[in-house]
Amino acid sequence: MDIGSFNLHDTFVVLDPDNHATPEENNADLYTRIDARYDKFKSHQLLSAHIFTEDWANWEIHPKGDEVVLLITGEATLRLKINNTEHIFTLSKPGDYVLVPRNTWHTAEVPNQAALLFVTPGEGTQHQPV
């Protein structure tokens, strides 16, 4: 068990299928490292936080589960593509969140700055340019 005090922007948390939590340093090799350590993230989730100052450059999709995207500060608009229809959700006050259903392409627009918390089922995640 890893015990300590961490900052979620610097140290993410991997949640395994038994709900064991493992801190993982947020650095350049994070995603390569967690793919190797956690069997390509099969049945795992990633708890992370990011600060954005511009729109996302990509759409992403998580085929193995729903993602939670929660606003900590700022404002962000999430765009989801469901059955060829785009759905738009604006997160404008701390605590607002969007549940992104599995297999749903999504991206975000950030007018100024936004800090977002994510609970992501990472296995099989894909990206494509906006």
TrEMBL record:
Q: What organism is this sequence from? A: Alteromonas pelagimontana
Protein name as it appears in the record: Cupin domain-containing protein
Under the heading InterPro entries, the entry gives: RmlC-like_jellyroll, RmlC_Cupin_sf
